[in-house]
């Protein structure tokens, strides 16, 4: 995790946000919203601070949030959970991923199957857990895994199949056939499934289907989510995971020595958010779909080929028609020439497997409509 000079290598998100700050470019790189989320949620955090929720909360999480996660999973997906044993609150989805891998992997004989490109923390946390990474490629333009490649990657050495659906960075939503194959392979090879569903409410075509709802999946699946994307509170870092009590207990055993607890006043605020009416959840999906459409149209008009995402904050575009040969160099230049920052897709894959992504770029649509329109204008004028 350190560079050759012994210094911390910044993540691609930190690097590109710094580039946006130094060039004054519009930041469509790092995925964070530029507007606040629902007023009820913000007010609930202020009220919790005023009411003295400022000391260590319980290790598993504030009971109100545990209850709210259970209600949310039942309301949206029909999943029944015991808040006292089958749910754990974490410092964002990131801690849930890290603690899960540390808790459930037992050295280099354990393999973790990951779909690549992937969120950068996955490979780092697999390495920290001392486990071995096995990757299944997702290819332009639809980024669905090939079922034969998936079947070859999962073996008796597989400890965990790590799924991210809807997917960062590609915006893909896995097909029913892919989800079913993941469950079938997990059964056949006695593997666990860990699903990162932080974009669960940002889907554009059909309601989200958690893998845990598939027949035979719940008993071997840990589902992870977070309040950051749904309530536009990425800085609060309130996440959670749910699944079989023995697995959740194992993760809690590790989590208590990572952060111990966190976010006391934000936990009840996220509980308030999870209890918002269905119209809120439909509204954020509609809003993000409209933003995706504006961004996509702008990218097409500027000459990119666009892979239309079915979920998440992100759109992947191919800059090859604009003469790009190296996505990273293209992004560095784009900040200067067009005043727009984006992220090269190569940053989400290991160096030896970057060729298929060489000219692909990820743009974040989670920005105000006027910001997206201005970005589209800039891209059309000088890509
Ligand atoms: N997983 C994915 C796929 C993400 O995109 C992100 C955030 N950008 C996270 C996890 C991290 O979530 P949190 O901020 O809740 O730790
Ligand atoms: N998840 C966000 C993204 O993919 C930001 C993550 C981060 O900054 N670590 O852009």
TrEMBL record:
Positions of transmembrane segments: none
Keyword field: Aminotransferase, Pyridoxal phosphate, Transferase
A Pfam entry, by short name: Aminotran_1_2
Domain Aminotransferase class I/classII large per the UniProt entry, residue ranges: 25-353
Cofactor(s) it depends on: pyridoxal 5'-phosphate
Domain of life from the UniProt record: Bacteria
GO molecular function, one term: transaminase activity
Entries under InterPro entries matching the protein: Aminotransferase_I/II_large, Kynurenine-oxoglutarate_AT, PyrdxlP-dep_Trfase, PyrdxlP-dep_Trfase_major, PyrdxlP-dep_Trfase_small
Name of this protein: Pyridoxal phosphate-dependent aminotransferase
């Amino acid at each position: 995790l350190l560079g050759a000079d012994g210094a911390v290598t910044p993540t691609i998100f930190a690097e590109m946000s710094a580039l946006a700050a130094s060039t004054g470019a519009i930041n469509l790189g790092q995925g964070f919203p530029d507007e606040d989320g629902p007023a009820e949620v913000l007010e609930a955090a202020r009220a919790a601070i005023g009411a003295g929720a400022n000391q260590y909360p319980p290790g598993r999480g504030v009971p109100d949030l545990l209850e709210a996660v259970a209600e949310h999973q039942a309301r949206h997906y029909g999943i029944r959970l015991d808040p006292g044993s089958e749910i754990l609150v974490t410092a964002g989805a990131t801690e849930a991923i890290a603690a899960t891998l540390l808790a459930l992997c037992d050295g280099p004989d354990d393999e973790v199957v990951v779909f690549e490109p992937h969120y950068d923390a996955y490979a780092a946390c697999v390495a920290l857990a001392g486990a071995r990474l096995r990757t299944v490629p997702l290819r332009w333009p639809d980024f669905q895994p090939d079922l034969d490649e998936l079947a070859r990657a999962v073996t008796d050495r597989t400890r965990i199949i790590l799924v991210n659906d809807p997917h960062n960075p590609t915006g893909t939503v896995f097909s029913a056939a892919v989800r079913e194959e993941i469950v079938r392979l997990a059964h056949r090879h006695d593997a666990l499934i860990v699903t990162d569903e932080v974009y669960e409410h940002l889907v554009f075509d059909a309601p989200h289907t958690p893998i845990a709802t598939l027949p035979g999946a719940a008993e071997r699946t840990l589902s992870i989510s977070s309040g950051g994307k749904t309530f536009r509170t990425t800085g609060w870092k309130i996440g959670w995971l749910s699944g079989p009590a023995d697995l959740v207990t194992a993760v809690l055993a590790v989590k208590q020595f990572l952060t111990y607890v966190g976010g006391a006043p934000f936990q009840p605020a996220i509980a308030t958010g999870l209890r918002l009416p269905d119209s809120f959840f439909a509204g954020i999906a509609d809003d993000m779909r409209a933003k995706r459409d504006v961004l996509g149209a702008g990218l097409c008009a500027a000459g990119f080929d666009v892979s239309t995402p079915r979920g998440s904050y992100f759109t992947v575009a191919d800059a090859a028609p604009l003469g790009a040969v190296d996505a990273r160099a293209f992004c560095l230049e784009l900040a200067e020439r067009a005043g727009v920052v984006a992220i090269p897709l190569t940053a989400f894959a290991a160096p030896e497997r970057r060729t298929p992504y060489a000219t692909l770029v990820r743009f974040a649509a989670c920005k105000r409509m006027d910001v997206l329109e201005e970005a589209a204008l800039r891209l059309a004028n000088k890509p």
